[in-house]
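Sample entry (445 residues):
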Amino acid sequence: MRFRLNNIRNSAMNRIQHMKLGALITTVVIAFSSCEDYLTVTEVENRTISVGYYDSPQKVEQAVVGVYVDLRRALLENYAWLMYGEVRTGDLTLAVEYMDKVGSQQLTDNNRQIRQLTDWRHFYDAINNANRLLAMLEERKTNVLSPYQYDLYKGEALALKSMTYFYLTRIWGEVPSAESMDQGVLLTQTEIVTRAAQWAAEAKDLLPWLLVNDDGIVSTALTEVRFNKTAVSLLLAHEQLWLGKGQDAYNGLTQVFEGQSTDSLSHFGLSLGRDMELNIPSNPYTDRAILISKEKLADIYPVGDTRRSMFNIPADGANASLIIEKQDMLMLYSKREIELLLAEAAWREGQLEKAKEHLMAAATGATEDYASLTSDTFGAALLLERQRMLMGSGQRFFDLIRFNKIRQFVPFYTEGDLTAGAAYWPLSAQSITSNGLEQNGYWTK
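Predicted structure, serialized as tokens:
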């Protein structure tokens, strides 16, 4: 199965809808910023909502956008998505003072930005608000919302909660539940991802391929910055692969994408805009250049690899800069990942020929001949293609954990370090104090 995923041209109406969403997000951010301090997982009942406020679809949608705001803050504060991903592995650099500390694994440094990167408050805000939204949707199901609106908003809430928990456990390992049935209980990574996959599967049945704007017109621009069926299907496949369920991932991806028109597929990212929180950059792609050393660039992208065009490579100087095509959204899932995930799922289930077919479909522009790969060499080739194609998405360190390749690419750690928990970030003092948790074993040294 081969997907030719062409860029969809956005109409003027789509651009207007995207700007309207950005304005709505800014409004929600300003409103939320005037409220009480951010909640820890033990304080999730402290935030109240006026009874009867959500009496229209527009107000319910504000609550939905609020969850996106929380997740955006979690991933953008101090450029967290890059710090958790390519900066920690040394692939990319950013002109900030704490970049070198992240790259050298000094994650317990007393630097203020480093301390903020160890705090999960924004993530738990997203979960808390998603849960409140889900409860409120059941109350407004019949008298406020149309069937389309109810399914969309519920699907988004479930998908956002799923993605947020998935980020939490990949960053910190074991994390507490924020669910009413076992609030505050420390859950294993398997327990967390299993729940997240269940929520993503439920969302997949509810979300549309493409969203419509206020006038009932399909909007590709709006679809790109809200959860859609493409995005939640990729999220679910990631979670299933993390759980070692390659066959489930392959079957699910094949079922949802086989024969699907490419015009119905969409990228997914978070809409960017002004935020009242000082550490949340409004233009993370333009206010500081995202750089790669020319030496690292040559190691990853050999001469002749057309993906070198993703970088501005000056004749002079030691660095090249990553070119961001869509600077108005923080790209989380690209349509290009469909083939990569299909390749991984097939390979992990011993279907090498299918895996090679999908990898070759994904790796347009590579100089290598992947037709001769074996079961033993396929994993390294796939990991390299994920590195090449998803540069700047923040997934790199998570990929190294899933492929069990941290020691190969981050030689700072010994096997004993990884056993003690070095792959996961330390917890902030606030997180430990408010929840009675203990610091990750490795970071107590």
